[in-house]
Design goal:
Elements: H1 3-28, H2 30-35, H3 39-43, E1 46-54, E2 57-60, H4 62-70, H5 72-79, E3 82-86, E4 90-95, E5 98-111, E6 114-130, E7 133-143, H6 148-155
Parallel strand pairs: 1-7
Antiparallel strand pairs: 1-2, 3-5, 4-5, 5-6, 6-7
């Protein structure tokens, strides 16, 4: 292997590591942002036309994502104390400016002086590199309730 080939291989590996770190940082920012009620910053995690499909609720575009964070339902959740906690994302694919990952999460709520897990979910997430860095183009979330649909999201099978 020539020095030039070694250098190009190293550059490619460093780019992959930088991309993975940027994607992880983007995805794990969601929980703290929505727990703080930061609607604009949370919506900016998606592309302008990005989609968030969560348990029968489909939001398309940043305006709908902002509205979700500002909604009375969401404000009630965070007003009582909450932690949207993402497990480490598993990045399955980075090809050029497109990527795909999945992770699991829990939503912890505070009630009567105690914390409890209110929801556990799985997320299949598609991303695109933009002028603002990596952004979510599509995120599908389903409850980890034993359903075949949730298991499909983990495996990336068609229909997920």
């Amino acid at each position: 292997m020539s020095g030039e080939e070694s250098l190009s291989g190293l550059v490619a590996r460093v780019q992959r590591l930088e991309d993975e770190l940027a994607i992880i940082r983007k995805l794990t920012a969601y929980g703290p942002l929505v727990d703080a009620g930061e609607a604009d910053a949370a919506a900016a995690l998606w592309t302008e036309d990005g989609v968030y499909d969560v348990e029968g609720w489909r939001m398309a575009g940043r305006a709908e994502l902002r509205a979700m964070v500002r909604s009375d339902a969401h404000q009630d959740i965070i007003g009582g104390g909450s932690a949207h906690f993402f497990g480490p994302p598993h990045i399955e694919r980075i090809e050029g400016d497109e990527a795909e990952a999945f992770c699991e999460s829990i939503l912890v709520r505070h009630e009567d002086g105690k914390f409890y897990i209110w929801r556990a979910g799985v997320h299949r997430i598609e991303l695109r590199r933009t002028s603002d860095g990596w952004c979510v183009t599509r995120r599908v979330t389903r409850p980890l309730n034993g359903s075949a649909e949730a298991r499909k999201l983990v495996t990336g099978m068609p229909g997920s």
